[in-house]
Every structure is written in structure tokens, then in C-alpha cells.
TrEMBL record:
Enzyme Commission numbers on file: 2.6.1.2
Protein name: alanine transaminase
Record's keyword terms, sorted: Aminotransferase, Pyridoxal phosphate, Transferase
InterPro entries: Ala_Aminotransferase, Aminotransferase_I/II_large, PyrdxlP-dep_Trfase, PyrdxlP-dep_Trfase_major, PyrdxlP-dep_Trfase_small
Family: Belongs to the class-I pyridoxal-phosphate-dependent aminotransferase family.
Coiled-coil region: none
Any one Pfam family match given in the protein's UniProt record, by short name: Aminotran_1_2
Residue span, Aminotransferase class I/classII large domain: 34-387
Broad class of enzyme this protein falls into: transferase
KW Transferase (keyword) present: yes
Organism per entry: Undibacterium terreum
GO terms assigned for molecular function: L-alanine:2-oxoglutarate aminotransferase activity; pyridoxal phosphate binding
Cofactor: pyridoxal 5'-phosphate
Amino acid sequence: MRPVQKSNKLADVCYDIRGPVLEKAKQMEDEGHKIIKLNIGNLAVFNFDPPDEIVQDMIHNMHNAAGYTDSKGMFAPRKSIMHYTQEKHIRGVTIEDIYIGNGASELIVMGMNALLNTGDEVLVPAPDYPLWTAAVSLSGGKPVHYICDESADWMPDIEDIKSKITPNTRAIVVINPNNPTGALYPVEVLQQIVDVARQHQLIVFADEIYDKTLYDEAEHTSIASLADDVLFLTLNGLSKNYRSCGYRAGWMVVSGEKKHAKDYIEGLNMLASMRLCANAPGQFAIQTALGGYQSINDLVGPGGRLLRQRDLAHKLLTAIPGVTCVKPKAALYMFPKLDPEMYPIKDDQEFIHELLTEQKVLLVQGSGFNWIKPDHFRVVFLPNTDDLTDAFGRIATFLEGYRKRHGTA
């Protein structure tokens, strides 16, 4: 029989958050091992529950959720999203500019599919949430990674962005707050990106899924609020701020310079129609979530569970010899660095594999986020404080053994 092979479009696609090391972890669990998972921001498994009013609203409306909805989504949740854009000072958004999707992930792929021809380039941050790089590649485009500068609290390097623009560049992706670094971009940095986009007529894709998960009284600015003469696609959803990952309720807002994008918007409408609609139960949760009590503030504010766990994780990580980490201002992650003199890692996936095998702690290597060197990994600080303390103790033990094996202790 002739072997059946995957599409060539998948040749440059990876999603190591759920990659080979996770498969090894599943195998170990099947063998009876207990794995401490610091690899994925799946809040429900760590007992972060969605607001009860969201759950009750979905249950109450379930009898109305059996039919297809409008391809862009129901009117009421889209109206509530429109009001939310007004709160974020994004001007000129109408109901027709809003698309509800099965999570923001579906809409990321849709936005790239509608835009890119073979060879078109999109500027994507490094490190990034890897779905962005994958979506560009799957759509026939070429992801070009611009550097976020760790020494500047992981801010985008504007000069690096400028140096990587070519005649084929169509768009730039801005992940703010950032996954995996937890960075939050100030208005000055966002305005510089807008200026570059304006000069080169780039579309800005703004991933703002963590815009309420903010620490130390930080404030988030939507980049689309800073200009009317640039085309923005802003993505958000319920998954993180409302602890509702499995509901798959996300949205995309088109704003700014839309007059010259009529053909592109027609493509978005076509793709939205082809998938018929987003899931209806998840849509019923949106209006209640956006208009209700914002319980995320209790989790990230003084005494809140997420704040406590962030602070503990950062303290325990940076107490390990040769480990440094920019303290995140937002989101659910840290992206610590291993001193290459103390940890001469050649293959960071193999490094994470060894940690899993020896200490039964699951992380994701930095290269899984398209980072350029094998000297970082991502940590999720969602487990409770006891489990975090246990996990970082195991990581410290593993790293001590690694230093001894390589003569760098």
C-alpha cells in the first residue's frame, strides 16, 4: 500500500504545547505516574470555575441553542461586544464588524486564510503563541519573527520590526498581554507599532485574550484605540478572563481603515458562512459575561489567588541558581531563562523530556514558542500553592543534577 502522508502545508507547523512531550506524559499517566502539569493554561483543571451566572445563563438558554445562528453570531452577544469595544475606546465598530467564533483560535485561522496568498509575509513576535505562526503557514504565508527584548521587559524591538519588513509583508501580529512572557505593552510601544503599520500599510492583528488578567493595578490599552487610519483585527474571548476555555466563545472585531478592505472583509464573510456559525451555547454566555460582575478582578487583585501564585512562582523560580525571569505583569505564564554557561542545552525539547522523565513535571520548551535559543521554557502558574511548591522543588532538584552532570555546579 502507498503510504498516506500529511499535507505539505503542515511541514512548518508545530504546536508543542500539545506536542511530543505531552504524548510522553500521557503514556506515563497510563502507567500510573502522577504528572504535575505546568504546560497549558487550562483553568478548569486547576479549579478556576467560570462565573456561576454564565453557567446558569447557558443552561437557561439551552433549549434555544439547537439551531444555526447568523454566520457572524447572534445579535445580543455581538451588541455586547460592540459595547465592550466602546469601553476600550475602539471607534467606529458596528454589529457587522463583529464575528463570533469557536474560540479566538478559529478566528485567527480565518483571518489569515482570508488574507494571505502564497509567499505573503506576516510579522509575528518571538516568542509567540504558536498558533499564530501555524496559522500563517497553513494559509500559505511566511511567518517572519520579530524579537521581543527580554532585557527591556520583553517589549517588541521596533527596529527589528522595521528591519524585517519587505514588499511582501502584509500584516503584523501583536500579542498584548503577551503569551508566553506575561508582558504588557505601554501606549508608547503600541503607538510605535501603529506608526510602522501606517507607514507600510500593514494590517494589525491584535490578540488581547488576557486583557483583564492584569496584576499590580496595571492597565491595558487596545492598540486599535490608537488610530482610525490603520486596519485592525482585534481578537478576544471568554476562555481566560472568564475561565471558560471549553465553551469556545471568542470574537474578532474589524476596525479602523475599512474602506480599502472591502474585498478582504468579503472574504471573511465567506469563510464565516462556510463554517455556518459558532456554537450557540457558548454565544449565550457572552452578554452575561461582559455585562456581569468581573470576578477576574478578585483573582488578580490584592489577596487574589492568581496574584499569590504568580508571586510564589516567581520567587521559587528565581531562587534556583542560574534561573532569571522577568516578572509578568499580566496573563498566566512566565518565560524564565536558563544561564547557558550553567545549563549548556543543545536541544530544549530533549531537556524538557528529561525533566518529565526524572521529576514528572511537564513544561513546554522555549522553541515551542518560536524562541531563537534553547535557553527558555514556559511555566503556567495555575496550580495551587502546594503543587507549585512541589513542582518547583522538583525542577530545582533536576537542575541541580543537570549542573553536576555537566560540571557547571
